[in-house]
Write a structure and sequence with these properties.
2 domains, single chain, 411 residues, Immunoglobulin-like, Rossmann fold, alpha+beta, six-stranded antiparallel beta sheet
Length: 411
């Protein structure tokens, strides 16, 4: 489970505009035995009063690009319930497969204090946190408990979730066994580079944007999507090397860079995404409306002029809210067919209307690249095959990834 910026009004502070944020203190993991027992007693108590008055909104299960079903939820609590004081909030999710044993996951969040000078109107706003977990096909009972650590007040919700693959023909498969519950957090990449001399030199430009373009927050499932799709992509392409860049157009900045992307780099990227607060935007950024587009142009120019050019450049991420075109004066004219640019553009199920070219699609088209729309994990596999067919026709794609979770820490 992961934290996201609070859904509240904007407050001008110095030269920045801030959206108050709940901070994640620990990564989601199975809880200790003692914590599991005390939490279990609260969840099993039918008379446990709802004194925190938080709303818990379930999300429909979604097959992500790591071929897992993600079940998420959003927790909203009024700041007035914390009386303006800084607080720690524990959120537990107990998930019981039909006919199986329950799995308890937990995470801690810090709700920042509003301060003594806070206006009553500010305390009417909601603090918003998101969480989730990955499952295989099957039926599950889900119980979420929200606990204010200082006062012991709680809110909870119980619902049932049914998860099944659509059965649509294609190469996608569910990587998590039926009736299995796993953390939605980062699983290690552990990819082996192709040292045969036939592997591709790949550059990946990761657009760290939320799946819903109307949402300014990067939620738990957004991070799971970004990291899962990246891992799935790299596990299907035989790579000799990977040059990795992650960026955010809202903040007009680069979040992560590594020329020889490896396992350690993957974990550093995961941390950069976890700490990203899209609700925090510098005042200077707001004055530079073309800053994000200039960043894209700089990436394109850098790749076109690289001393060791990549065989393929893949821009990966969800369709963005930016529909402006990158200026012709910012993009270097192509002098050779390589490197070829691909935009793996993901459209979530709630995307309104027909897809329209965004800034990344515009850039790819101007560079005579290929825009590859993705609506499902099946489409990702087909787009990978397009890359291999054009760049290295004799290459065989790696098998679809089979995932194993990191072992839970001992307590």
């Amino acid at each position: 489970m992961e934290s996201v910026p609070l859904k509240c009004g904007l407050v001008l502070v110095s030269l920045s505009i801030w959206v108050l944020a709940a901070t994640q203190l620990t990564a989601q993991e199975p809880v200790s035995t003692a914590e599991s027992e005390s939490t279990g007693r609260m969840l099993d108590n039918p008379r446990l009063p709802d004194l925190l008055h938080c709303s818990i909104q379930p999300r429909k299960p979604m097959l992500d690009f790591a071929f897992r079903f993600d079940i998420g939820f959003i927790v909203r609590c009024s700041l007035a319930r914390f009386a303006g004081r800084a607080s720690k909030v524990l959120i537990y999710a107990r998930v019981t497969p039909e006919g199986g044993k329950p799995v308890l996951l937990g995470e801690t969040y810090r709700v920042p204090g509003a301060g003594s000078a806070a206006k009553p109107s500010q305390l009417k706003q909601d603090v918003e946190m998101s969480g989730g977990f990955a499952v295989g096909e099957g039926r599950y009972q889900v119980e979420v408990l929200v606990l204010d650590q200082e006062t012991g007040r709680t809110s909870r919700k119980r619902w049932r979730a049914s998860v099944a693959h659509s059965g649509r023909p294609g190469p996608a498969h569910v990587a998590v066994p039926p009736g299995t519950v796993l953390p939605i957090g980062v699983w290690s990449w552990r990819i082996k580079m192709d040292t045969s001399g036939k592997g591709l030199r790949l550059t990946v430009l990761l657009d760290a944007a939320p799946l819903n373009p109307r949402t300014p927050a990067l939620r738990a499932w957004d991070r799971a999507f970004l990291l899962g799709s990246l891992s799935s992509l790299l596990k299907q392409i035989p790579c000799a090397s990977v040059r990795m860049r992650a960026f955010n157009l809202e903040q007009q900045r680069e979040l992560f860079r590594q020329d020889q992307f490896d396992d350690a780099g993957f974990m550093e990227l995961a941390e950069a995404l976890r700490t990203l607060e899209l609700g925090t935007v510098s005042y200077r950024v707001l004055q530079q409306r073309q800053g994000g587009l200039n960043l894209l142009a700089d990436y394109a120019n850098s790749e076109l002029r690289a001393a060791d050019p990549a065989d393929a450049i893949i821009i990966l991420g969800p369709a963005t809210r930016y529909f402006a075109k990158v200026s012709f004066t910012k993009s270097k004219r192509r002098e050779s067919p390589n490197p070829h640019f691909y935009y793996f553009e993901y459209f979530p199920g709630h995307w309104p209307g027909s897809p329209q070219p965004d800034a990344l699609a515009s850039l790819t088209t101007r560079l005579e690249g290929t825009v590859c729309p993705i609506f499902s994990p099946d489409d990702l596999a087909r787009c990978v095959q397009k890359v291999l067919t054009r760049v290295q026709p004799t290459a065989e794609p790696f098998p679809a990834p089979r995932w194993t979770a990191r072992p839970a820490p001992t307590h």
